[in-house]
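Hello K.,

You asked for the raw outputs rather than the summary table, so here they are, unedited. I folded two proteins back to back in the same session to keep the settings identical. This is the first:
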Amino acid sequence: MGTFTMAASFLPSMLATTSFLSPIFIYIIGWILPAATFAFLLLYIESDDISDIK
């Protein structure tokens, strides 16, 4: 029973300290992921020979 109470008390404290991750994921999904996708697609479209990309 001791490990269950320790895990039950650890989970809320862990979730409270990771509450800042939500705004970070918003920027990652909203800005960084589309920018990386557009950059890859631009390089792919503009390449002369498609076999150059591995």
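The second followed immediately with the same parameters:
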Amino acid sequence: MNINNNSDYKQLVKCKYLLASERDAKWGLTVSTVGYEEIAPGAFYPTKGHALGYYFNVEKGRVLDEYQLLYNLEGEGVFKSASVPETHIRPGDMFLLFPGEWHTYRPLDNTGWKSYWIGFKGKNVDDRVKEGFLSPKKPIYHVGFSIDIQHIYQEAYQTAQEEAAYCQQTLAGIVNHLIGLMYSLERNMQLNTNSLQVDIINKARMRIRETLEKKVTIQDISQEMGISYSNFRKLFKEYTGVAPATYQDALRLQRAKELLSITDESIKEIAYKLNFESPDYFSSKFKLKTGYKPSDFRALSR
């Protein structure tokens, strides 16, 4: 722990830097740094004592060869990068730094801040960027105050401090948990700003579950919800990540597994009971999704 305290500025900094082996890298994600800092209002920034390549001049900015995920617990600041103009950082914001992307950030003089960070690299995260889940064009996520996120950062720091054998694998799991929470919390906060839409989707999901063995279509359900099919489909996919018909099919196949496992109903009876077009269509769909014919699945599950 580094604690700076004099008449010009007050800082509290805790940080740990780690090494990763070539074998660690094959895991798909490695962690290089974990830390926490408290910057008092009017304090000098950035803090001293960072490893080579991490300290930076706020005016000039810097470029890292790794990702860093920061969580601003208290206070306010500003962030700017090659892809994003100067943007206000609020309490409860997480912001992601990308390798090879110029950036700079700092707390506001009148507020300071309390901030956690973790630095990492690897194919796991590269793939998410490639698929568009994460982007330098959208580096800031507002997740609000989350005791869960705070505890996860603390767990990461403790794990790094202990540096037990295979700690890189533990830290990789922690980073994946953080990224998943960041992504889902912000999207849910955005969606929940419209309680009417949330109610529609929750009611629709319950209605789909209730009618798996009834001849009720997605179009029927959208009419029940008082919304056009196209708008319903768009809203449902935005909220759940899948189209309503895909959601219905997945639940029907899940129910088919239960019926194959716990009843003696024929495959034909199950197919028609769950409203598949035909037993052959049901069998081909079941094998496509599970890798087994319905009859083989039944034999294995008993």
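The first helix runs from residue 22 to 25.

Happy to rerun anything if the numbers look odd on your end.

Regards,
P.
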